[in-house]
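Sample intake sheet
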Amino acid sequence: MTRFSPSANRSRARRLPLIASLLLCGGMSGAHAQGAELVFGFCFGYFWLLAEEGEEARKFACAGQALEQNKARPTKLSHDLVTGQTSRVVLTPPNTDAIGSGTSQDRNRTCVVGFQDAGNGTPYHAFRWTEATGPVDLGTLVPASNSSLSSDASAASDDCGVIVGTSQISGSANHGFRWTSAGGMVGLGAPAGADRNSRAFGVSGAGDVVVGEAEFIDPAAFSGIRTGAFRWTAAGGFQSLGAIEPGFFTSATAVSADGSVIVGNGGVEVRVGNTSTNGSRAFRWTQATGLVPIGPLPGHQFVDAAGVSDNGRIVVGTSSAAPLDRFAAGGLLRGSGTAFRWTEATGPRDLRQLLVDSGVDMTGIALLSVTAMSPDGQWLSGQATTPTTPAGATVGYIVQYCDDAIGAVCASIGGGAASFALAASAATLNVAAGQSASATLTITPAGGFNGAVTFACSGLPTGAACSFAPASVTPAGAAATTTLTISTNGGPVALWLREYPAAALAVFMLPLLGWRGRWSGALALAFALTAVLVVGCGGG
C-alpha cells in the first residue's frame, strides 16, 4: 500500500467538512460482457490520483481486472474523472490464453503485482509488472514444481521492492511469502508447523510488516488448530492477533502504511431467536486496543474489511446477509452485499446512504462492495449495479467521500469543471501606422466544455483598436476559431517611448499562448493584450 500526498504544484486542494460524489464507470464486469471489446472491470487494492503537470488532479490509476473476449485479464486501469474515458493496459502478452488479475501497485504507479496463468491447463503464478520488463513470473516457493504449483501476489510496498502473497508448497498446503529483488521469494512458514497453512494479504509501506492469516495451535478451537490473523516482522516472526470470539477464525486483510493499524474479519456466533448460527465481524487492531469488532449493517450477519486509511481512522468493506470469503488468488473478495464505511465517530455506515444524505442522486444505484481505497481514505471503488445493468453483471464505481476523518485536505478534482486551451497563429503582430494585421485564435475544448466564449480587448493605446470575427464562438465537441484584427488610425498611437524611431506597433501575443480557462455557467473571456509601442511621433 502507499500513501497519497497531493503536492502543491500538481493538484489544488481545499479543506471542506464534507465532499461526496459518485462516478459510475462505463462497461461492465460479469457474465454478460461479450465480444472482443475490453470492458472496464473494477479496481483491487489501492488506487492513486494522477495529474498532468500544472493541472488539477483528474485521473485515477489502479491495478485491477478487465474482460477481453470473455477472459479475465490482469489490467492497469486509468480513468479520467473529467472526460469519463478509461484507458487500460492489459498486462498479459497479446494472443495468449493467460488469465488472472492485478491486485495492487506501487506508490509511483510504475509497478503492478497480481497473478496469472500461462494459458489453459496451467497453474497461476504471482507476477510483477513494469513497463520496462512486462510481467515477470515470480514462480513458487518450490521452483522445481513450478509447473504444477500455484502462487499469487496480493500487495506491494510503496516502491514495489517488497511483494507479499501466497504460494503452494504441496498439493494441500500453502505458505505466505515475502519477495524482494535481492532475495527472491522467501516463505514465511506457518506457526502451527511446516505442513500447516499461512497466507499473506497485506504489507506496510516500507515492506517490513506483513499481515494475513495462518494456522495457530489453539486449544479453544474444535480441532485444536485455528486459522488466525497475524502480524509478521523479520525480527518478531508471527504475532497472533487473537480472535473476536474464542475458537473462531480471524483473517487480516490490510495494514496501514506504518504497520500500526490492521483490519480484517473474524467469525462469531450469531443468535437468531432461539437458534445459534455462524456469522462474521470486521475488526480493527492496534497494539494498544487489540481486536475491536466492527459490526455488520442492520439485518446482516457477515462483514469483511477490505482496507484501512493511512491514518488508521477509516475502514471500508462489505456487509452482507450471506457469507463472504476470500479465495487464495490474491485474497480477493468473493461475494457481494452492501458497501460500508466505518469511522470511530460514526461506526459502520451504508456508503450509499452516506451519499444520499450528502445530496448525491442514487436512484436505482446499489453499491455492492468496496474493493479499493486511496491511502488517504477519500476515494473508494468497488462494484455497483444500476437500472440498466444486465442481470449477473456489475459496473465499477468511484466515490469521493471526504469528512473530518480524512484528517487532511480533500482533493478538489476537475470533474465537472470543463476547460479549454487557447492558441494563436502568430506570436507577434507588426502593424504599420494606418494599417491593420490579423491573427487566428483557436479555442480547443476539453473535458466536455461546450460554453460560449466571448472575446474583447483591453489595455490598447490611443489610436489602436481591435476586433474579433466572430466576436463569440461555441466550441462544442471541436475546436473553434476567431480572427483577431489590430488596426491603427494613421496618426500617432502613443506619446511615450519617442526615442524609438520605428513606425510599427508590436502586439505581443506570447502571454496568450497555452492559456487555459475554466468554465462555470456563461463564460466571458477578456484578453488583456499588452501593447508594447515602438512608434515614433513624426510625420507621414
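Comment: The first strand starts at residue 13 and ends at 14. The mean pLDDT is 75.
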